[in-house]
Amino acid sequence: MDEELQLNVPLLRRRVPNLTSAARAAGLRAATVSNLCTGKIPVGRAEVRTLVALATLAGCSLDELIIRGSGMRMIETGIKALDLMAPVVRGGTVGFVARPNMGQLVLLAEFMHRLNKRGYATIFWDPGTDAPGINHVKEQSEFVLSTRDEVYKQIVNLREEKDILLGVDRSTVLSGELLILRDSLKEAGARPITVALVDMAYEAADGSATDAYGPLDTLLRFDTDLISRGIYPAIDPIVSTSTILEGSYLDAVHLTIQQRARKLLRRYRELRSLVSVHGIEKIADSDVQLYNRGERLESYLAQPFFVSEPYTQKPGEWLPLYDTLEDVKRILDGELDDTEASELFFKGRLEVRS
């Protein structure tokens, strides 16, 4: 689609300082080049010879000149609970909402680790605190920087070639520094910056996430009940959500399975409170089936992390999105009704049974 293509303007301007004169000398209309750079003419509607000429001027390939997939889409993390229930929006803002000791910095460190492997540049804007777990985040970040100016310069140096994940503390929102940084980085055509916001003072856990962080594209709210039962990542599958679920950005298969899973887990949570007080024999047979499937799905969404391997003694697991969707559909459809929830707990892909 046309809106999924963008010209890599910073790269072009860096390599061709006097772009207007160079374009004219190459036989291109200056107005056309200017409109392509500002987005007035979509890249998808440009003549091929124009794009080839610009790539030649910049001494780069068409793949370097044209940024594909800049429209709203998810970042596949290989983390089942996130990819299924609250997909991370590429170029958006992710809010981690948690109380102390719920694993928010472990999840951020894991997020950094996984996106490093995917070719992202990862930057951590160090708030200068000694919060427990912050060292894990620093270890997994490609760059650890202390000031807004340092962060700005590093992003400018990197974002022409790579997508960027920027991890920041909520204090940068309160101080206004994150807003200033965003405003200074609004040049057209560069690759997206995905911002992961954590709250190391834990002041925003009980309030509105929007009030605490500002607009969020992905909300990851941590759940005390999951923590108490040792289920990690402890992402609340009911409350956690993503703006990518609100439009036609996900394919129909993903959206349908996600909606079915959320509905099942919502009912399962309602039934858990009854079962914990009265026992499972006091609920209807149809609800027993839903309860057991919800228990299996909850267990399945637990997952070992790469950064936690020294502590869990379990190898980290990456699950491609469509493996996750296929596994979840099997649980929802009852194919694993004879499988104990404990057999699905803290593992990766389910075994395919003939």
Short description:
The chain is built from 17 helices and 11 strands.
List the helices and strands and how they pair.
Blueprint: E1 5-7, H1 9-15, H2 19-25, H3 30-38, H4 48-58, H5 62-65, E2 66-68, E3 74-75, H6 80-85, E4 88-89, E5 93-97, H7 104-117, E6 121-125, H8 134-140, E7 143-145, H9 148-158, E8 164-169, H10 171-175, H11 177-184, E9 193-198, H12 209-213, E10 218-221, H13 224-228, E11 241-242, H14 252-278, H15 285-300, H16 309-312, H17 321-332
Parallel strand pairs: 5-9, 5-10, 6-7, 6-8, 8-9
Antiparallel strand pairs: 1-2, 3-4, 10-11
Helix pairs in contact: 1-4, 7-8, 9-11, 14-15, 14-17
Architecture overview:
The two termini are 40 Å apart. The mean pLDDT is 89. This protein has three domains: 2-68, 434 Repressor (Amino-terminal Domain); 93-216, Rossmann fold (3-Layer(aba) Sandwich), CATH 3.40.50; 252-343, Bovine Mitochondrial F1-ATPase, ATP Synthase Beta Chain, Chain D, domain3, CATH 1.10.1140. It is elongated and about 80 Å long. The protein has a seven-stranded mixed sheet, sandwiched between helices. A two-stranded antiparallel ribbon has the order 1-2. The longest helix is centred in the last third of the chain and has 27 residues, at 252-278. With 354 residues, it is α/β, with parallel strands linked by helices. It contains 17 helices and eleven strands.
